[in-house]
Design a protein that fits this description.
This protein is of the alpha/beta class and 404 residues long. The chain has helices at residues 59-70, 106-114, 123-136, 156-159, 166-171, 180-194, 247-253, 261-270, 273-278, 284-294, 299-322, 332-337, 339-346, 350-353, 359-364, 389-400; strands spanning 2-8, 13-19, 24-32, 40-45, 48-53, 84-91, 102-103, 142-146, 202-208, 212-218, 221-225, 327-331, 371-372, 381-384. Helices cover 38% and strands 20% of the residues. Helix 1 packs across helix 3, helix 10 (284-294) crosses helix 11 (299-322) and helix 11 (299-322) packs across helix 13.
């Protein structure tokens, strides 16, 4: 079966095409600046790159151009658009309605729309993508794969906030967690590497990228996670602050330079984290280069130290939550490639928590390589597992839409 995976943003549409169940990637690409000047479709087939600059006024036109590229005799991978047997959509927020992926129908569409209040930057775009593909591929079954679904197993003591209870019952204020597709995929893969059934593995999964989250997994189920009501909570990230004193936004709003909530929101989401501490750098490669050039006391070095310190804090917390830990698992861009951050984050945890790295194995585990980087005798294994969110979405669409 051919499965098309779609990830829609407010002005973008990312896609990958898979042959399932082999999980063979046939093509991928992105449509950027939808509805704006300079809109561009970049289609990739293997090592070939095919850019197409043209007016793309809306997501429906973007979907049409993607399908045209996929069936193009010169650069496409399909004989015809009707070869597509299913479509999988990444949907950020499913609220409490969904604890797993589902086939898209009218009820699911209403639920996604109902969660737009909870994810105003993402769910409207995800809904637009579903409608655009539905118009372009009428009758083709679609699946919605929710970022929040994996974390619906959190117990109340973990997902409720210590605020007035009616804020939860009336306004749905609670911890939801995100990056669920990544955490779920990595949890299953890590259990396989450990030679354990997924329902017997206790894991701490560190999804470290520009957006970052850590999840405690007990027996294959998420029991706590760092992101909360929004993806702003938890770890310090590329440009997001992560956990801070909740009085800080109120304090800032009283200052003349922050005349409204949108100004504070901008600072916390786009001008904080690694970028804010370092003075404008959020890419780890740039931060390491600046720290090497400017020395240990530099703001770049401080940003790296703060990031690793916060990862270490949550690893320690989730060791306490789980009691028994089989492995700490690193994934996503930083987790898979930055051996220095991994070493800093787990430094001195051998005696207290039984987590110890092998320096040579750690240094070699870069570039998307899967492997065990534990030191001999480490009570808790340390793994690097490359994530595959798109592959997971393709698998779910294949499973739900009649392929399995």
């Amino acid at each position: 079966m051919i499965v098309l995976v779609i990830n829609c943003g407010s002005s973008s549409l990312k896609y990958q095409v898979y042959r399932m169940p082999e999980r063979e990637v046939l093509a991928r690409g992105i449509v950027e600046k939808i509805g704006d000047q300079g809109s561009l479709l970049t289609h990739r087939r293997g090592d070939e790159k095919h850019p197409l600059a043209c007016p793309i006024p809306d997501h429906q036109e973007a979907a049409r151009l993607v399908l045209e590229a996929l069936a193009c005799p010169r650069r496409g991978v399909l004989r015809q658009v009707s070869d597509i047997g299913a479509v999988g959509h990444r949907v950020v927020h499913g609220g409490e309605a969904y604890s797993g992926s589902v086939r898209v129908d009218a009820q699911v569409m209403r639920a996604v729309e109902d969660c737009c209040e909870l994810a105003p930057l993402h769910n409207p775009a995800n809904l637009t993508g579903i409608r655009a593909v539905e118009a372009a591929l009428p009758g083709v079954p679609m699946a919605a794969v929710f970022d929040t679904a994996f974390h619906q197993t959190l117990p109340k003591k973990a997902f409720l906030y210590p605020v007035r209870h009616d804020l939860y019952t009336r306004h749905r204020v609670r911890k939801y967690g995100f990056h669920g597709s990544s955490h779920q995929y990595v949890a299953a893969r890590a259990a396989a590497l450990l030679g354990k059934p997924a329902d017997q593995a206790n894991l701490i999964i560190c999804h470290l990228g520009n957006g970052a989250s850590i999840t405690a997994v007990r027996g294959g189920r998420s029991v706590d996670t760092t992101m909360g009501f929004t993806p702003l909570a938890g770890l310090m990230m590329g440009t997001r602050c992560g956990d801070i004193d909740p009085a800080i936004p109120l304090f800032l709003q009283a200052k003349p330079e922050f005349p409204g909530p949108a100004d504070v929101d901008r600072v916390l989401n786009k001008e904080s984290g690694l970028w804010g501490v370092s003075g404008g750098l959020s890419d780890l490669r740039d931060l390491h280069a600046a720290a090497a050039q400017e020395g240990p006391g530099s703001r770049a070095a401080l940003a790296l130290e703060m990031f690793a310190y916060r990862v270490k804090g949550f690893v320690g917390m989730y060791c306490a939550v789980l009691g028994r830990v089989d492995a700490v698992v690193f994934t996503a861009g930083i987790g898979e490639n930055d051996h220095a951050v991994r070493a800093m984050a787990l430094e001195d945890l051998g005696e207290a928590l039984g987590v110890a790295l092998d320096a040579e194995r750690n240094a070699a585990a870069v570039g998307g390589r899967e492997g065990d980087i534990s030191a001999e005798g480490s009570r808790v294994r340390v793994l690097v597992v490359p994530t595959d969110e798109e592959g997971f979405i393709a698998h779910e669409a294949y499973r739900l839409c009649g392929g399995a």
